[in-house]
């Protein structure tokens, strides 16, 4: 009884100490300072401290005569800076892994990485994480407070690395994984951007011609007092309608876009419908399919290599595929594996993975080298995505010219047809 009471008292004391440490950390703030060094040169910088007096004392220890020390002003309208991107997180993981492998303590590593950030949002986030670690939190717990930047997969891998005492190795693996995933995302965005750009430019050019250019020709046609060719008359009628009801077209376009976005976010059935439809698109659908397989293989390989059990690893993989269809498929795979099915058999049941992929997974399972085989699959499909996107880009560049040229050319020909007709009559 006495032992349990002493243990409980010790636990409460430790909790209180951590609470005090957190309170002390929360009192820290950023100060900007200007001073004169031993050479008489004016220098400036920033430092995190409890108050200005401690900043001045620290500067004097470094041989700097402080002239101005004041709290760094906070932005008027909340935090400033660019959005934190996945590539920023990858760079952070790489830097922290490098410093920890070199023997730099974690807290000092965070301070160094945060100090080198040009994005205030990233800097503030890393500073807050450092303060949580100083207050007694584990790294995975501190990162878990920012689920947008550090998802469940990231925090689970960090937790596994902390438990096994190989955090620097795991962070290096995470950095490589994030870099590969961001490269794939960049390729997919590039593949989707070109078709969207072609359609958008064609629509904008058509609207400009219909609203501003064709009405000028219509005034000329009225003075000619001649019957217009059918195609020209159609363009003139369409132009009149656009001039009168352009606001309705804009309203319908914006309303449709907002409505589709809301429906997509709120309806799982609609998400599946769109996901399946997109995968059936020529060229682009195949690129998205290959990307989903590459991300599935890369993510599962990384988590499995880090020592995460296969069933738990599949939990993290589902949201990393970037496809609603493959997300659901991975969840079904997890259920099958949980009841004892082999991974390759569960993958085959979904009918979403090529025979080559399932056969390579089967070989990996039998040889006890599943992670290595998954990495080979990921590398193959990442290369396929790169090649497909490059080919698509090369194909779309002339298509952009053909589509825009066809739209503009047909309107120009339609406007000049009456002039050609009049010229042939006069001749």
Which properties best describe this structure?
three-stranded antiparallel sheet, mainly alpha, 427 residues, 16 helices, flat, single chain, disordered N terminus
Question: Mean of residue pLDDT?
Answer: 81
Largest sheet entry: 3 strands, antiparallel
Please give the order of strands in the largest beta sheet. Answer: 2-1-3
Which band does the percent of strand residues land in?
5-15%
Question: Could you give the order of the helices and strands?
Answer: HEEHEHHHHHHHHHHHHHH
Q: Tell me, briefly, the overall form.
A: flat
Distance between the termini: 117 Å
Which stretches of 5+ consecutive residues score pLDDT under 50? Answer: 1-26
Q: Specify Rg, calculated over alpha carbons.
A: 31 Å
Question: Pairing-aware structural class of the strands and helices?
Answer: mainly alpha
Tell me roughly what share of residues is in helical segments: over 70%
Q: Compute the number of strand runs.
A: 3
Question: What does it look like?
Answer:
- The chain is mainly alpha-helical.
- It is about 75% helix and about 5% strand.
- It is built from 16 helices and 3 strands.
- It has helices at about 1-25, 50-60, 85-100, 105-115, 120-135, 140-145, 150-165, 165-225, 230-265, 270-280, 285-305, 310-315, 325-340, 345-350, 355-365, 370-425; strands at about 30-35, 40-50, 65-70.
- A 3-stranded antiparallel beta sheet has the order 2-1-3, with helices on one face.
- Strand 1 (about 30-35) and strand 2 form a beta hairpin.
- Helix 9 (about 230-265) crosses helix 10 (about 270-280).
- It is flat and about 90 Å long.
- The termini are far apart.
- Residues about 1-25 have low confidence and may be disordered.
């Amino acid at each position: 009884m006495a032992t349990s009471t002493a243990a409980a008292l010790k636990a409460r004391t430790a909790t209180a100490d951590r609470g005090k440490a957190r309170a002390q950390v929360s009192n820290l703030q950023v100060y900007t300072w200007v001073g004169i060094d031993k050479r008489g040169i004016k220098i400036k910088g920033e430092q995190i401290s409890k108050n200005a007096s401690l900043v001045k004392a620290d500067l004097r220890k470094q041989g700097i005569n402080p002239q101005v020390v004041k709290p760094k002003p906070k932005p008027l309208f909340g935090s400033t800076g660019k959005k934190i991107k996945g590539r920023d997180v990858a760079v952070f993981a790489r830097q922290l892994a490098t410093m920890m492998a070199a023997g730099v303590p974690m807290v000092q590593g965070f301070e160094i990485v945060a100090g080198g950030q040009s994005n205030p949002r990233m800097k503030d986030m890393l500073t807050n994480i450092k303060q949580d670690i100083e207050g007694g939190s584990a790294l995975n717990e501190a990162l878990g407070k920012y689920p947008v930047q550090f998802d469940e997969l990231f925090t689970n891998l960090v937790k596994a690395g902390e438990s096994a005492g190989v955090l620097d190795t795991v962070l290096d693996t995470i950095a490589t994984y994030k870099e590969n995933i961001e490269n794939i995302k960049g390729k997919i965005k590039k593949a989707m951007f070109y078709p969207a750009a072609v359609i958008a430019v064609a629509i904008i050019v058509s609207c400009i011609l219909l609203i501003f250019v064709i009405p000028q020709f219509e005034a000329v046609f009225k003075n000619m007092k001649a019957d217009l060719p059918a195609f020209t008359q159609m363009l003139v009628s369409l132009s009149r309608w656009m001039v009168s009801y352009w606001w309705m077209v804009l309203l319908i376009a914006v309303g449709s876009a907002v409505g589709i976005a809301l429906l997509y976010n709120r309806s799982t059935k609609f998400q599946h419908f769109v996901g399946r439809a997109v995968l059936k698109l020529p060229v682009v659908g195949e690129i998205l399919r290959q990307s989903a397989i590459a991300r599935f293989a890369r993510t599962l390989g990384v988590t499995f290599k880090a020592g995460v059990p296969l069933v738990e690893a599949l939990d993290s993989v589902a949201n990393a595929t970037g496809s609603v269809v493959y997300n659901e498929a991975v969840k079904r795979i997890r259920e099958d594996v949980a009841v004892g099915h082999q991974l390759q058999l569960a993958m085959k049941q979904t009918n979403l993975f090529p025979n080559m992929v399932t056969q390579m997974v089967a070989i990996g399972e039998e040889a006890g080298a599943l992670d290595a085989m998954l990495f080979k699959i990921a590398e193959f499909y990442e290369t396929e995505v790169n090649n497909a996107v490059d080919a698509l880009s090369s194909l779309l560049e002339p298509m952009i010219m053909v589509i825009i040229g066809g739209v503009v050319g047909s309107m120009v020909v339609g406007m000049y047809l009456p002039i050609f007709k009049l010229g042939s009559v006069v001749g």
